[in-house]
Please model this.
Amino acid sequence: MTLKDVQIYGAGLSGLVSAINLVRDGYHVTVYEKEEKIGGSSECHPSVHMTPLHMQQMERYIGIELESCFSKLDDFRGYIGPKKLVFSTQNLYVVERGPRTSSLDYFLYETAVKEGVTFEFSHPLTSEELRSIPDHSIIATAGYSKMVKALHLPYVTFKQFDTHLQTDLENMSLAYFGGFTSDYGYVSTKNGLLSAQLSGPLRLSQEHLKKFTDLVKETEGIELAGWSSLVSHFPKKARLFTKFAGKTFVLAGDVAGFLDPFFGFGVHGALISGKIAATSMHSRQKALQEFKRCTSHLNRDLFVHTMYWHLPFKKLILSQVMKFQDTSLSFVKRSIPGFTDEDWVKIISIVD
Ligand SMILES: Cc1cc2nc3c(=O)[nH]c(=O)nc-3n(C[C@H](O)[C@H](O)[C@H](O)COP(=O)(O)OP(=O)(O)OC[C@H]3O[C@@H](n4cnc5c(N)ncnc54)[C@H](O)[C@@H]3O)c2cc1C
Model:
């Protein structure tokens, strides 16, 4: 092994962005992936993610042209209970995730292969192997990988139910807030695929899932079935480096805590954090500065979000919160890494 060898664990968004940037900088990059092919876990993918994004700024930042993978959102409706809201779609995109060739994962993987990154599939990083992997390895294995726990990082546990089916609906998202979850449920569509998710604290149950499923049927006539469930751990504090068994590891994506705790937007943060993890290999200081710039508000936001889980009368509070269109809700608006207050106002502004 030379100083120019880098090991990345996890071939998802942050791991692939790191790999592409590092190989371009002259490193020999090997990505170790748990699954036998690209596209992450079949428990939650294929899926459609909705994400806020500044497309050109993002492309410049990470040095990868991504636009062909994303579609602008055409329609974004929400429900607080049965009450319907129409949200602005500004800066909002849908993107396919998972193993299909039309996914963002596949696009980044193909780019990485062309640039010379080496992949080892069916290689899950385990807590035992953590002790023997090289210093400065990049860990990008997502919140559901148990690595946050294995690295002894303080964490919050989330539960989610996921399903997907075929659809004729394109580039549409639905968000459901109500008594069935402390967070929210959503439906998104792209490339003939509809995916739905309900997420919240560990106590999220089949009963909550049924309420959500019934509400989607009642409001939009969509029948959801075939759910799988997943438990994830997210760090209580965003961090770029962590020490383990006398070594320093670089963290990226969910494992770095680089996601918005309020709405679970993680695509934007994962892409940025992949670039920052790559930067850390040649400039620790610059990487730390960038990491801090993008995540300074996240630790507080995660705390506020956990408190919110315990609030009574959330439905009432939510309907009030959704009426705000000024900057007084900065704790919610700034929870997407790299987004400004103004960007957030555009996103949560209600059209009707
Ligand atoms: C079903 C679902 C829906 C979501 N919806 C949205 C959304 O609508 N909008 C949004 O912005 N965000 C959404 N998110 C969050 C977003 O997907 C993540 O925050 C983002 O993908 C994190 O990127 P990452 O690089 O950390 O991990 P990922 O992109 O998930 O990649 C992790 C990779 O690591 C691999 N891996 C796992 N364990 C190991 C191991 N032990 N060893 C080696 N490899 C391993 C996985 O197989 C995977 O390939 C959703 C997440 C899920 C799971």
Observations:
- The chain has a mean pLDDT of 87.
- Residues 180 and 212 are 6 Å apart (CA to CA).
- The domain at 5-348 is CATH 3.50.50.60 (FAD/NAD(P)-binding domain).
